[in-house]
Amino acid sequence: MSRAATLPTIIQGGMGVAVSDWHLAYAVAAAGQLGIVSGTALDAVMARRLQNGDIDGHMRRALAAFPYPAIAEELLTTYFLPHGRAGRPYRPIPKTTIERNPKHEMLAVAANFAEVWLAKQSGGRVGINFLTKLQMATPAAMFGAMLAGADTVIMGAGIPREIPKLMDDFAAGRVGSVGVDAILPEGMETPRLAFDATVTFGERPLLPRPAFLAIVTSETLAGYLARSSDTRPDGFVVEHHSAGGHNAPPRRMQDTETGYGPLDEVNLEKMRAIGLPFWLAGGRATAEGLQDAIRHGAKGVQIGSLFAMSSDSGLREDLREQMLDKARFNNLVVRTDHRASPTGFPFKVVEVEATIGSRATYQARPRLCDLSYLRTPKIDSEGRVRYICASEPDHKYLDKGGDAAELVDRLCLCNGLMAAVGLGQERADGYREAPLLTLGSSGAGVSEMLERFPDGWSAAELIASLLPE
Fold it and tell me: How do 385-388 and 376-379 pair as beta strands?
């Protein structure tokens, strides 16, 4: 039996940077469904929470449970400011690279451990969502999540073909590694990034092996992954292009408002034939959407936007209220932006004033790349590595041989998403990073929830509204 066979009907989406934080995952897991924490940039999230003074003490509570107390103490010494930053910029953290960095590994492992561990205090089932694109962050983050006993790992934004083996290796106490997509001279092998826990932690513990769900947008990709034991997940999240965040590109740009169309619809009969459990995501956030998914052979649904807009999510309260206000007047606009993300993947952008989803705020932002999660290694014939991102300053990008056309309309997702959860950088010259918001474009369930809960809803209220009484 697949490890995913006993997972609940509702999976909460792993959204943004700490939108799906441990508070939200805790609430969902406590309600009997699968709570998911976002694994994106948790190293920066923990470091910034500590620098803000860790007001509620939860980061320190989790670090007290971390199985390597000397490293927990070192992280507290480095980042914890008991009285907060007093307006000073956040201290930078080590960036992800194709070279191992023990300082980064310590922080990444501890941060992913902490987020999962805090959510698991609910007593329910908790998973973590990673982006396949962030390969240089994956091994240490995966180890930290498994160290905390994550029940499930979900991955999209790419083809997560190497993840089952990485998880098997960590579960067996072996060194784990992933290949890192890079710009390479012809004939050069893809670099690999390995994680050996003995280097940083002095041991390679045996870890519980979570279920693995691959996010796919076609039955063809699902069939490819299921074909081999090395790549086979335990199940799938089948994501429609209306879902929020990053989307897979259209199979072919079609003459529609979004560029997606009939060619991008998944054949659910062929999904059922693969024989692994699957959940449908995107436009399914109603009781009717859930029941329809089950009638088509799905085990349930993954829901993102309505959880993101719930009172339990990590979104800044003022931003949540702005989106709810727009939704009340049927004025909530979400566009599919094929240029926004430096990854080249389409990205759903919410158009809200004073966020970088608005043209004026985007144009006023100085271009810089300091968090750098989405940059790509570029290796020359002598093995020298530079890192390139289409959202970095123009001159730096062009000096590295980047194409000027790639700079047009690119957003800094890293800084914008951090600002959306109240962890945006405040720079020494007084500039504050503006937030970036993302939701699904279908609007499924928003009006219905507002009719039932005019002042907003909690995660538990949303779950109760979806399940049959």
Answer: antiparallel
CB atoms within 10 A of CB 43: 26
Contact call for residues 97 and 387 (beta carbons, < 8 A): yes
Would you list the DSSP string of 288-307? HHHHHHHHTT-SEEEE-HHH
Phi and psi for 373 in degrees, rounded to 5? -70, -30
Structure tokens belonging to residue 7: 């997972």
User: From CA 272, how far away is CA 274, in angstroms rounded?
Assistant: 5
* pLDDT per position as a tens digit, 69-117: 999 999 999 999 999 999 899 999 999 999 999 999 999 999 999 999 9
Q: Which of 70, 67, 46, 68 is nearest to 58 (CA)?
A: 46
Residues 269-303 have pLDDT tens digits of: 999 999 999 999 998 999 999 999 999 999 999 99
DSSP for 329-344 reads TT---EEEESSS-TTS
pTM above 0.85, yes or no: yes
Q: What angle do CA 295, 300, 302 make, to 5 degrees?
A: 135
Please tell me the distance from the alpha carbon of residue 74 to that of residue 417, in angstroms, as a whole number: 27
Q: Which domains does the chain have, with CATH numbers?
A: 10-316+445-466 (3.20.20)
Closest CA to 149 of 229, 8, 29, 50: 29
CA distances to 10, 153, 353, 362 from 7, in Å: 9, 12, 39, 41
Q: Residues 6 or more apart from 104 whose CB is under 8 A from it? A: 43, 93, 94, 95, 96, 97, 140
* Rg of the chain on CA atoms, in Å: 21
Give CA–CA dist 169/204, Å, rounded. 10
Question: What residue spans of 275-353 are helical by DSSP H?
Answer: 287-295, 305-308, 317-328
Q: Are 238 and 201 in contact (CB under 8 A)?
A: no
In the chain, the N- to C-terminal Cα span, in Å, equals: 29
